[in-house]
Amino acid sequence: MTTVIDSVPLGVVLDDIVQLHRPRNERGSVPARIPHLSAPPFDRFGIAVATTTGEIFSAGDAGIPFSIQSISKVFTLAMALGVDDRDSLWSRVLREPSGTSFDSLVQLEVEHGIPRNPFINPGALVVTDHLMESFPDSAGHFLRFLAEQVGESTVGVGPFIDEAAAQSELASGNRNLALAHFLKDFGNLRHPAQAVVESYIRQCSVMMTCEQTAKAGLFLARGGRGEAGSVVSKDQAKRICSIMLTCGMYDAAGEFAYRVGLPGKSGVGGGILVIVPGRYSICVWSPRLDSKGNSLAGMAALADLTDRTGWSVF
Ligand code: GLU
């Protein structure tokens, strides 16, 4: 069986998207405080679509591992909710768009240490802290979770943590440490600030390909059902997608909803994970970012793909 869009096979559509959207010259930026993210050449571009029927389509550099950065926040949120019977996480973090930068100290101070949502850095630090209650080695557990969803071992080609990159980010991680200390001061962190930041940064430093990332996100398109059983309930899967739609794209969630019309989560490594509920999990990657921190070419490609296919939640 193959997926066809207006009688064109999806694989052919993706090849065309790569042709059109692969950057031809150096544009956009990489985050200054994470030096290793400038390593991939500007013209890297990959896209993969995993279907709920078990197919995978990809094009361009979809087989090259990239740093998933904040895409990790979707998975850690799902893992934390999956072990949280009483929904107690939601007394520690809200579910509103922040309207400020993802690592703002000011907002956290004004709002008494309760982060606006789980996808800004303080929110993700709280999620990591929550996860560490059940799994002290949360980053190791996270990696095993991803390997299970992707269906490959963590050795060799499977998802892996770029430990050197994590160390270098940690060395310049003063802002995340400051956020963690603020949270601790407000009584919203149970583990030592340093330990939480270390786990969080190791989670961000996971390397996966577009194909692997799309496969890892498939449980959200399948109402919470992962490769080896339930990851979260159907209700939780719906709610995670809602938070992706409203909070997943930094300060450009409105623009992304307008142009793409699907729940998405981006990372400053240039990856974007997008869910078409019931049908597809999509990952696009191109490393140079726009002023909001989203992949320049990735945003354009997703707008184009969803216009061509009509994929949308609206
Ligand atoms: N590791 C990055 C940080 O904490 C992740 C940022 C992102 O992708 O949004 O700043």
List the strand order in the largest sheet.
4-3-12-11-10
Tell me, what's the shape? globular
Per the CATH scheme, the topology name is Beta-lactamase
**CATH superfamily (homologous) name:** DD-peptidase/beta-lactamase superfamily
Provide structural commentary.
This protein is an alpha+beta fold. The chain has helices at residues 10-21, 72-82, 105-110, 121-134, 138-150, 163-171, 174-185, 193-204, 210-216, 218-221, 234-247, 253-259, 296-309; strands at 4-5, 8-9, 46-51, 56-60, 66-67, 160-161, 206-208, 225-226, 229-230, 264-266, 271-276, 280-285. Strands 4-3-12-11-10 form a five-stranded antiparallel β-sheet, with helices on both faces. Strands 5-7-6 form a three-stranded antiparallel β-sheet. Strands 1-2 form a two-stranded antiparallel ribbon. A hairpin with a 2-residue loop joins strand 8 (225-226) and strand 9 (229-230). Helix 2 (72-82) packs across helix 4 and helix 6 (163-171) packs across helix 8 (193-204). The longest helix is centred in the middle third of the chain and has 14 residues, at 121-134. The chain is globular. Glutamic acid is lined by residues 69-70, 102-103, 121, 169, 176, 201, 204, 267-268.
Can you lay out the helices and strands and say which pair or pack?
Elements: E1 4-5, E2 8-9, H1 10-21, E3 46-51, E4 56-60, E5 66-67, H2 72-82, H3 105-110, H4 121-134, H5 138-150, E6 160-161, H6 163-171, H7 174-185, H8 193-204, E7 206-208, H9 210-216, H10 218-221, E8 225-226, E9 229-230, H11 234-247, H12 253-259, E10 264-266, E11 271-276, E12 280-285, H13 296-309
Antiparallel strand pairs: 1-2, 3-4, 3-12, 5-7, 6-7, 8-9, 10-11, 11-12
This protein binds glutamic acid.
Residues 69-70, 102-103, 121, 169, 176, 201, 204, 267-268 line the site of glutamic acid.
